[in-house]
Amino acid sequence: MIKQYYLYQKRRGIKITENSAIITKDLTKKFGDNIAVHNLNLKIAYGKTYGLLGPNGAGKTTTVRMLNAIISPTSGTAEVVGYDIITQAKQVKINCGFLPESPGLYQKLSAKEFLEFVGNLYYLPKELISSRIEELLDIFNLRGRENDLLEGYSRGMKQKVCLCAALIQDPKIIFLDEPTSNLDPAATRMVKDLISDLAKKADKTIFICTHLLDAAEELCDQIGIIDKGKLKVEGSPQEIIDSVGAKNLEDAYLKIMGVSKIDDLLAWREETPEVEKKNKKMKKRK
């Protein structure tokens, strides 16, 4: 099946390189006067799992959207699988799988119909779409529910279907923005194992944006910590831990960001919808 896919990709002019999977040089994105990503320089080898960590609004999602050729940078350059993200955006998209933090689903389709739809967007051969769907249904334990409408799925099951969609074309690079969001502990463990297998056994390059520091420490070969659009530190989990004399990645992250655990908790709490509503009501009373 994989051989068939790459023969198909070759006929379409898809480039398979032996160099770095992702290279960025001074990659920058501005929204008005706000600099979301500032002079980002990355070099990620094939088959590695890279974790981009940082608080909300740090520039993680903007970075992923640029690398997937969804939005264009303001300045700087980047190559993904050997293709320029601006001039060769179509080839970038074909070679990348992307799971956004809040993916959209067509609720009136079944899981199988939705995956067939996604496969057709990539112009995959019909027989290849069918075989990939069968394989992914087994991997994500969705067998028996594939013909049910997505509107009847739990949030965790919908996330599994979105993961299947990100993998349908057997991409060389997989971008995952909070991949374990809405999953129960068993499914979270399954996703972690799958990510590990994809990188180590299937020669996949994985780029993860996550708030789960224990998952990043466990899964990632290399980690970058970004804040206010700037890359603060980069290295293996152990290198980052050792660089600040921390006992684990969570402690290292908090030291690098210059916050205590209680400060980090309060910052997170201030960003929740419930607290935002409460704060607005209090301001109105004043």
Description:
- This protein has 286 residues and is of the alpha/beta class.
- It has one domain (2-243): Rossmann fold, CATH 3.40.50.
- 44% of the residues lie in helices and 21% in strands.
- The chain contains twelve helices and ten strands.
- It has helices at residues 2-11, 60-67, 89-95, 111-121, 126-139, 155-167, 185-200, 213-219, 237-243, 249-257, 261-270, 273-285, and strands at 22-31, 34-44, 49-53, 75-80, 83-84, 96-99, 173-177, 205-209, 222-227, 230-235.
- The strands form two sheets. Strands 6-7-8-3-9-10 form a six-stranded mixed beta sheet, with helices on both faces. It has a four-stranded antiparallel beta sheet with strand order 2-1-4-5, covered by helices on one side.
- Helix 4 packs across helix 5 (126-139).
- It is globular.
- The N and C termini lie far apart (65 Å).
- The relative contact order is 0.14.
- Mean pLDDT is 85; it is low at 1-8, 11-17 and 271-280.
